[in-house]
Amino acid sequence: MNAVDHGSRIECTVEEYRRGMVRLQDEYDEMKRQSSADNGAALLEAIERVETGREEHARLEAEERERAAAQAREQREVIARALALRRSKDVVTPTDDDDPEGEYYRRESWLI
After folding, report:
1. What region, left, alpha or beta, does residue 107 occupy, with left being phi > 0 and alpha being psi -120 to 50 degrees?
2. What is the rounded average pLDDT of the residues 79-100?
């Protein structure tokens, strides 16, 4: 009778273990399903954030390129104005051809 009691106790313990494993497996499957659904929404949200960030980055990059181009254009204009001013000062144009001293300053050789 003792052997039968041990056998039935073992069978009861195995059955309890099996029921516990089935319950845990069901909980695990439910958590996995729920996590999968949550991750899908989270994944879509993350993709949306990345796309928004990419658009923002592209917009900022375009603004930076435009700003750099405007700055380069402004620098070229400043250099062109400076060169034009320098060139205008290189050429001496007589204001009065009848000026007797003007002849002295317009001579080709300064060797006396």
Report:
1. beta
2. 74
Q: How far apart are CA 36 and CA 44, in angstroms?
A: 12
What is the enclosing helix (H) or strand (E) of 7?
A: helix 2-90
Range of the domain at 10: 2-88
28 within domain boundaries:
yes
Average pLDDT over residues 30-38: 79
pLDDT tens profile 1-23: 566 688 888 899 999 999 999 99
Q: Tell me, yes or no, whether 7 lies in a domain.
A: yes
Residue 105 lies in a domain: no
9-45 burial, b for 16+ CB within 10 Å, e for fewer? Answer: eeeeeeeeeeeeeeeeeeeeeeeeeeeeeeeeeeeee
Place of tokens 């003007």: 102
CA distances from 61 to 48, 52, 55, 67 (A): 20, 14, 10, 10
